[in-house]
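Researcher: Quick test of sequence recovery. Tokens follow.
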């Protein structure tokens, strides 16, 4: 880590952000200013990369970005990811019939990776699955809910027979539980069709805990190698097993225990500095990914997201983070300004959506 006494250095030290765990990787054709970093120190069968791009930062730092604007930025980010994936994995070595794209419904298609890969000429087969928490799960994925996931829709009709498969699975990986359920079901169908699981590629907002869960699951199911492509950083994971901050106080832990717990993820020093002016410490970067979208495919039909609810929840969370952060030694005018700007934007967008309903 570079140390010049800057605010970034102080925050990195206080929150134990692991900026020494990454190294630059060259990827051709990225958007201007975009960078890719490899995460060091992982098991041999696991490779993780961080995609730092303006579109990803906008999504992560600004929960007021929803609907069509979110879709635009998600596609821009996916285009960088598609270039990184095709250059840093063996994906191009597989025939189209051996490449399986697992859509995790409802929210994961919103990452738009399948569209970005098609734009660069990659063919693949598509399968669909919808794992769902039986009880409402917004910011509440506690350990007691371990067995409360069910598969409410699946379509594996395109999963090939007698193939060595490479699987692409974009999604938000917080605790990794819905990812685990999705992969376990895919593995069952693959075995029924005498196909073997060779390599797995995961893309999206990914926590350190989620990476561990998915890698352990993939190894157990027979995948020989797992690649992770994380937007912006490998996030920390809050006590509620839901919120995914780059760094900051754990609001869910404070609300339940009354104690301040500080968290930090993994990213590069340069990426951390790019997030610093806009990111609100402790904020959940993906937010409620399904609620931020205009329309969601369920497997049976399409239904609206819940943008108004996402905006309301985001305002409440940021206000809580503001209250518990004020007065802390690490809280500065930069954070204050970021919070004030984001709350103003959230309220303006919320007013717009409420006005559209009238």
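Model:
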């Amino acid at each position: 880590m570079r140390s010049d006494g800057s605010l970034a250095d102080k925050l990195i030290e206080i929150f134990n952000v692991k900026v020494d765990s990454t190294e630059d990787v060259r990827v051709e054709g990225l958007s201007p200013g975009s960078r890719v970093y490899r995460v060091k120190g992982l098991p041999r069968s696991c490779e993780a990369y961080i995609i730092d791009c303006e579109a990803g930062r906008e999504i992560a730092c600004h929960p007021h970005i929803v609907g069509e604007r979110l879709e635009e930025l998600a596609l821009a980010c996916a285009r960088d990811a598609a270039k990184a994936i095709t250059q840093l994995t063996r994906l191009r070595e597989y025939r189209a019939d051996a490449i399986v794209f697992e859509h995790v419904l409802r929210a994961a298609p919103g990452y738009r990776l399948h569209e970005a890969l098609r734009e660069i000429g990659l063919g693949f087969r598509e399968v669909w699955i919808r794992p769902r928490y039986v009880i409402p799960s917004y910011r509440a994925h506690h350990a007691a809910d371990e067995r409360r996931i069910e598969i409410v829709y699946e379509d594996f009709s395109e999963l090939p027979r007698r193939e060595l498969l490479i699987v692409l699975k974009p999604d938000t990986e917080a605790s990794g539980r819905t990812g685990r359920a999705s992969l376990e079901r895919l593995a069952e169908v693959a075995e029924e069709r005498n196909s073997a699981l060779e390599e797995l590629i995961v893309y999206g907002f990914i926590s350190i805990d989620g990476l561990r869960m998915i890698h352990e699951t993939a190894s157990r199911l027979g995948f020989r190698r797992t690649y992770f492509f994380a937007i912006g950083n490998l996030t920390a994971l809050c006590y509620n097993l839901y919120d995914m901050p780059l760094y900051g106080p754990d609001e869910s832990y404070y609300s339940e225990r009354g104690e301040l717990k500080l968290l930090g993820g993994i990213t590069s020093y340069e990426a951390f500095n790019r997030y610093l002016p806009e990111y609100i410490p402790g904020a959940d970067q993906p937010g409620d990914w399904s609620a931020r979208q205009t329309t969601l495919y369920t497997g049976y039909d399409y239904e609206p997201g819940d943008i108004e609810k996402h905006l309301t929840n985001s305002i409440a969370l940021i206000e809580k983070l503001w209250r518990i952060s004020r007065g802390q030694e690490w809280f500065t005018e930069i954070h204050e300004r970021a919070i004030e700007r984001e709350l103003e934007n959230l309220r303006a967008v919320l007013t717009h959506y409420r006005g559209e309903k009238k």
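The longest strand covers residues 196-207.
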